[in-house]
What we know:
- The structure holds 2 protein chains of 2 kinds.
- By secondary structure, chain A is mostly helical.
- Chain A is built from 8 helices and no strands.
- The longest helix of chain A is centred in the N-terminal third of the chain and has 35 residues, at 24-58.
- The two termini of chain A are 23 Å apart.
- Chain B is mainly alpha-helical.
- Helices cover 77% and strands 0% of the residues of chain B.
- Chains A and B meet through helix 1, helix 2, helix 5, helix 6 and helix 7 of A and helix 1, helix 2, helix 5, helix 6 and helix 7 of B.
Amino acid sequence: xxxxxxxxxxxxxxxxxxxxxxxxxxxxxxxxxxxxxxxxxxxxxxxxxxxxxxxxxxxxxxxxxxxxxxxxxxxxxxxxxxxxxxxxxxxxxxxxxxxxxxxxxxxxxxxxxxxxxxxxxxxxxxxxxxxxxxxxxxxxxxxxxxxxxxxxxxxxxxxxxxxxxxxx
Amino acid sequence: xxxxxxxxxxxxxxxxxxxxxxxxxxxxxxxxxxxxxxxxxxxxxxxxxxxxxxxxxxxxxxxxxxxxxxxxxxxxxxxxxxxxxxxxxxxxxxxxxxxxxxxxxxxxxxxxxxxxxxxxxxxxxxxxxxxxxxxxxxxxxxxxxxxxxxxxxxxxxxxxxxxxxxxxxxxxxxxxxxxxxxxxxxxxxxxxxxxxxxxxxxxxxxxxxxxxxxxxxxxxxxxxxxxxxxxxxxx
Lengths: 168, 235
């Protein structure tokens, strides 16, 4: 069902543009051109984040932190095998996807751990990446309480979602 | 953000100096390679989606969408103008459809429009970041696909709890930003009072219709349409 939504919207927009003589071809090119500047401006921020994330993962610092977090996870009722996923999810989309894949391979996608991991990955976003990229072209350097609020909100959502999993 | 980056990088380097000094530079360069690869991918995605969005923009569809969602958006972002709300609306729509990469350029444009030149993020900027960062995606297609690949009997059976988690986290995020803005925006107490005054009288901040250069015409049209209606009724 959802596979149809975007192609259908696309087709309707194309035909509407043509019917109303808005030059769909020229419009598309004008829009696409902006992407070059955008990518160039975003690149240094992306680079800085990814260098730090890769070092963080390779050094084993993320595994240490995950170990330290395990008792906390147990206290809120989450399986402690998910510590590293919970830790990497806000930081790195690709890194946490690799860990999700590992969890499916180790515990199976239909186990409680596997389903918990699905909820955690499916209901959250790469918070640090978003907050870096969104502000990359503005003067803002201090995000104040944006990241703590987003982290607490996501964590609460995940805990409740995983709790609900026991009944579904 | 700068502090988090510094802590992450220095902690990892400190650790690697003791455990595996050879891996230190290699891992960071792997990260840099990853960034190049990712930005090439993003260039393709941004170009495609920005091209598509410019068609939507030319058709005036984004204005229609903005009007439709204005009651919600103007409450969440009290100091936004029409153009900013247009970008926010597009960002939300793309996020809801699961197109995070299409949503990013729209959010960047919205933040740029909100930019006051100050290094501190405004409450509206924080609101946009938190709403995006707590995930608006209703259908986590990536996870469903991965579970199917991993041989799950029912790849979509986590959807309901996941949906609850997403909606709940976004709701908590919005409430959290509202509460934090009340607590931390203390130096701007006067402006908060001004805001409260405006909230009682929203027409002064957010005119329901863009200020019309020729209000007389509007009235005429209204009268005409009324007449037409009356005529229609009589016929």
